[in-house]
Amino acid sequence: MIELTIDNKKVQYEPKHVHPINSTHYDQETRLYEIWDDQYFVIYKHKPWIDDQILNNQSVLDDIISYTQLENRIVEVYHISDKYIVTKFYKDYYPCLIKSSVMFYDYDTYLKRSNAHYEYFKDFTTAKKFYQSVLNEYRTFHKNTKCFFKDDGANNFIVNEDHSDYKILDFGCLRYDPNKEIRVRTLLDGIGGINGNDDMHIFGKQNFTQKERILESWRTNVNTMFQMHVMWYESAMMNETLDSIQTALTHASGIIDIQICLNSQTYVERPIEGEAADMFEQFMNHPVMEQATITYKTNDDPFYNIADWRREMYNNDGYTIWGESDCLLPYDLFFILEQLQVSGQLIDKHTLSLSSRKMWDDTWKEVELEGLDQITYKDSWGDIKHRKTRINQEELDIINDAQGDVKINLLTDNKIDGALFILSDGMPKFIPDDMSFVREDSCAESVFRFYKIPQYHIKNRLKGHNYHHELKRTNTEATREDNIFKTYADKSVNAMNKFLRKLWN
Questions:
Q1: How many CA atoms lie within 13 A of 274 on its CB side?
Q2: Quick check: pTM over 0.85?
Q3: Measured between alpha carbons, how far is 50 from 42 in angstroms, rounded to an integer?
Q4: How far apart are CA 119 and CA 370, in angstroms?
Q5: Which of 13, 181, 339, 365 has the least CB density, counted as fewest CB within 10 Å?
């Protein structure tokens, strides 16, 4: 008789039908598994085995058994001892990665599962969300048990026929460490395996993951959103910005979703001549506008501005780029972001910034173009790398072409300039619903700092942010000093402060 714990109750059990299975390791000692009554899967002791800190601590054992029997994606455990581990048997599930050590199948089944793996994971967003879910399960298990799975390869979680469900197993590799940070593999490794883990080629067989086909597919379906809010008085400089976007699009292989808001509202200021909406005619025939999805905001709508747009227009399936009408793009921006996503190096939520020109104080040094820390703001006055000097696309390209291969580093703190700022999917709410106007980038920065969301920085790609473009405000005499501007700005700032106080308190 064997004692199992089921729903927190001790049950005496004796198997009637035992089906032994030997592991298929070629480079390690063969391991013995058994299936009991087509209901339980039994893992007999092997080397390495479950941590003694777990085996000798009944409280930890109880936590593991109890947690696995809750609603989650860890295989249910009913017994853990120095002799064996008893878990639930999932009859119609397969290893997510079939490799030499778990080759329990005939070759036709192996090929069928290999093709199913490719068909499911060939979509980049599907693959990423799957692995993000796996990581969340590992982290939640650790949070509740203080234990982690030392071997977290894809052969150690099983999937059903169509990959709509999965379960994590291999309890023999459990280790106890309350301070452990769960490992994050690259995406391709996380969903299947690279290098030595996908190893059937050793025996002259097709590798399971078909990784080259997956990568080829990812390059064409990786998703990036470029969104931009355009006020009517910014229209005169839009053709230059759209030209910049058009050039960058020629270097993209994946899906670029361009979202543009054309805002002709006059709550804050009115045109000197004509109708506000007519200003947009200056660029409506540009080829990029034909590709873009256009949202119109007029005086028929409540007051709406950039904070509303940046809150609402967010991509949950890839990167979101905050475009601005006065900011030119590095021509390889979309290419860089697609390559970064396909590489699978940044799985968890994060932000990404491009380099600025010389800024007004040292708090910006970390996000300035590489090398600008050697000159002062005052001494670079009039230089093309100074923030107040207008830069055109040709000048921007010359600077970026001289930078060489992309260099990305992790910043010590969040530092956001809203122009061409890049957000990953999976972000918490970063702008409150009642914030419409200014300081939305400051609000987002505070939120990301609170949640400890890392900001990565492309230190050798410059963005062409023309803060003082002479066409930035045309056909208007209004300024930021006007009372009506201050009224809307104050309302926006108050909404931000209320939101952040609630967050931090």
A1: 12
A2: yes
A3: 14
A4: 42
A5: 181
